């Protein structure tokens, strides 16, 4: 089953048998036409190496219904929905269905849900994981296919697809400083969120551009942004950098109630470019994250691992900053 502590992959079987990985897949799945002598050699090598396909891959030829688990922090967030929708559509084309669970952003609940789903499904996709490194390593110990979306943790042997949050947020900060902003408040997301950590890291680096920023906590929702706005205004910034578009939308609503004009009196930025970001009043300056591409890529990697293929490291995907009507030069004093 393992060589030197590592799971034997279909690539290793193919190399040892001197055939293609496609041939190994056909032989072990019992489909297609393969020379009897070659098929026998593939089976011999697979047995010698201790290769065993993951459960879902073993069902490939049988027609059994196959399931994949998906865990997200908040099903009410359009960002997560868009990724799930894309992954689900891709998986359905391959005959898989998805079992979806909402952890509510709680690390302990997330880990429990992941473990439950791994007992029911052939593999797992975890979006924006909030659990700690110990929790992630416990998923590795299950020896089942798991893919993370928007969580990079060095030293944890789980494939990841994600967005380059750091570069996009740094570009947002550069946009603000080019307009003349020197004081901002960042309405931060969950402390356990890798995306939040990367965005704040970029904002801190923006001090080199002359942007001084403080961070205030907010729930990553419209209500969270609305509720935190008064505390933000007490800091006296000329720009508010929101963790995501939902938070920014709440900020816009509260600023209107306070009689402040955006962007004339206050600039506001979001992140993610969810479906209504261009329809807020004013339209949000934000970072466009390729959600459909993330979902498809996550499924592509999980599908490969379900079939025993080794998966190369995937670089972070670029997020494009789009300048709309919610940012302008700060008011003259």
UniProtKB/TrEMBL annotation:
Record keywords, A-Z: DNA-binding, Transcription, Transcription regulation
Gene3D superfamilies: 3.40.50.2300, lambda repressor-like DNA-binding domains
Superkingdom, natural source: Bacteria
GO molecular function ontology, one term from the record: DNA-binding transcription factor activity
Pfam families: LacI (PF00356), Peripla_BP_3 (PF13377)
PROSITE patterns: HTH_LACI_2
Classification via InterPro entries: HTH_LacI, LacI/GalR-like_sensor, Lambda_DNA-bd_dom_sf, Peripla_BP_I
Span of domain HTH lacI-type: 8-62
Protein name per the record: LacI family DNA-binding transcriptional regulator
């Amino acid at each position: 089953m393992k060589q030197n502590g590592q799971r034997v992959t279909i690539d290793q079987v193919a190399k040892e048998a001197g055939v293609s990985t496609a041939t190994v897949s056909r032989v072990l799945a019992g489909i297609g036409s393969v020379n009897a002598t070659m098929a026998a050699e593939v089976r011999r090598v697979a047995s010698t190496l201790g290769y065993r396909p993951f459960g879902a891959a073993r069902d490939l030829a049988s027609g059994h219904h196959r399931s994949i688990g998906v865990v997200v922090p908040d099903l009410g967030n359009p960002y997560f929905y868009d990724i799930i929708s894309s992954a689900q559509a891709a998986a359905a084309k391959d005959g898989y269905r998805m079992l979806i669970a909402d952890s509510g952003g709680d690390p302990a609940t997330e880990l429990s849900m992941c473990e439950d789903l791994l007992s029911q499904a052939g593999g797992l996709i975890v979006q924006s994981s909030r659990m700690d490194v110990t929790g992630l390593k416990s998923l590795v110990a299950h020896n089942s296919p798991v893919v993370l979306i928007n969580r990079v943790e060095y030293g944890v042997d789980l494939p990841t697809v994600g967005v380059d949050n750091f570069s996009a947020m740094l570009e947002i900060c550069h946009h603000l400083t080019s307009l003349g902003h020197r004081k901002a408040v960042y309405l931060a997301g969950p402390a356990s969120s890798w995306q939040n950590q990367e965005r704040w890291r970029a904002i801190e680096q923006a001090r080199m551009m002359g942007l001084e920023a403080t961070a205030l906590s907010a729930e990553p929702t419209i209500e969270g942004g609305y509720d935190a706005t008064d505390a933000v205004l007490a800091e006296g910034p000329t720009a508010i950098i929101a963790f995501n578009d939902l938070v920014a939308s709440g900020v816009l609503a509260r600023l209107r109630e306070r009689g402040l004009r955006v962007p004339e009196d206050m600039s506001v930025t979001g992140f993610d470019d969810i479906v209504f970001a261009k329809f807020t009043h004013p339209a949000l300056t934000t970072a466009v994250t390729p959600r459909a591409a993330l979902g498809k890529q996550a499924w592509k990697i999980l599908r490969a691992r379900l079939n025993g293929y080794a998966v190369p490291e995937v670089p972070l995907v670029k997020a494009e900053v789009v300048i709309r009507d919610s940012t302008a030069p700060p008011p003259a004093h």
